[in-house]
Amino acid sequence: MIMSGFKEDHAWKEAAVAEDRSFRANKSNGNRRKAPFYKVLQGMPIAVDAFRYGAIPGVTAYFLTHAHSDHYTNLSSSWSHGPIYCSEGTANLIIHMLSVDKKWVKPFPMDIPTTIPDSGGVQVTLIEANHCPGSCLFYFEGRQTVNAGDGTFKSSYIGSNRTFRYLHCGDFRASPRHVLHPAVKGKWIDHVYLDTTYLDPKYTFPPQAQVVAACADLAMKLASGEPPVSKPSGVFSWLTSTSTASNSKQSNQSKEPSKPVLFVVGTYSIGKERIVKAVAKALETKVFCDKRKAALLRCEADPELDALLTSNPKDAAVHLLPLGMITSDKLPSYLDKYKDQFSKVVGFRPTGWTYVQPSGTDQLPSIQQILTRTVQKTFTSENLKPGKQSTSTLQLYPVPYSEHSSFYELTCFALSLKWGKMIATVNVGSEKSRAKMAKWVSKWEAERKKRAEDVVAHRHLDYW
Ligand SMILES: [Zn+2]
């Protein structure tokens, strides 16, 4: 037993106090917010994604999973509390975006166990997280040497010979690659720190790789003038309009070379680059974005993406825009700027929330039902439907693209590893939400013990 139920309950109560929004730094609290227990590894002087707490007592190594703001909160040019370990891409990004002093930023290689300085000999392996560029999972292995952090729990293993293994998932989209990674495969993992963003069976969405391929396929069809396979009811579809509208004769006679279609993809900060790359490659075109965004993309150290970028918007049939621009009000004026080059605009709005479950779907399925009902799911360009705001020159496609694991993927991940404790790191603010998640974790635990196979069978290395 690493931490009893009672002690864990107490630790969560401490965490709730630490994360209280009304917190104000002052003399009586030492001018710093206390770090909740799940931010510091048990028995090790190591903190993960914990930059809002200043210098955490006993911590000598600060890890950052990826460069999204909710993970690097408060990290700035004035950081001076210790070395920051992360991937090369994340290192470039925090130096570029946050002006963190280079002397603190220590990129580690991917996939190679590396000993962390001043950590009592703990080794870490960085594993690609399948989230945004630069994101990784951290797999830690070593002895417990110190009770670091602000929690009152004291481990009884400090100084013992036992090796502890912790897998910190940061933000991730779980895939068979994670559980088959040589650093992790077959190992007993004491703690898994889990990205529980979608730990609820209502979150079902198709595999990322299929969605990316569907966007590329649809873009090719639209660019070549091939009508989309299915029209949404009651929506005027401009792609088939030449054969049905009154101007069909005219357009058949005057066969001017038609202007290409402009594709715009919405993104915020970093992430969703895979859709952009796949669409541009399918259309054999370049990608345009503004200077600020281009500088960010170059930090990501992705040669494939770098080769696609251009600073000339007229050279590229794919433009990257802030997600807020991909609307029926804003895109017409954007298209107007390039009306000499492009005839129409197609917008892709990638969000994790667009996939609606068929009505009547069981909300309290058994683990077996979860494994069988979702596995048949396939997603193609025919599943992408334009939004109702479409006009003769504009079509908007919501894209069910998520860089967090679906509930099905979390389930497959949890059943494919041997672990002692799952620690939720997202949606942990309320006791009700924690209790709901804990119920699923205990279902996974019971199911895992019953199962004969080590790893849940997968359809592809990239998804179950
Ligand atoms: Zn993230």
TrEMBL record:
Membership in a protein family: Belongs to the DNA repair metallo-beta-lactamase (DRMBL) family.
Gene Ontology CC: nucleus
Localization per Swiss-Prot or TrEMBL: Nucleus
Pfam families attached to this UniProt entry: DRMBL, Lactamase_B_2
Molecular function in Gene Ontology: 5'-3' DNA exonuclease activity; damaged DNA binding
Record domain Metallo-beta-lactamase: where: 55-220
Keywords noted in UniProt: DNA damage, DNA repair, Nucleus
Name the UniProt record assigns to this protein: DRMBL-domain-containing protein
Gene Ontology BP terms: double-strand break repair via nonhomologous end joining; interstrand cross-link repair
Occurrences of domain DNA repair metallo-beta-lactamase (ranges): 304-429
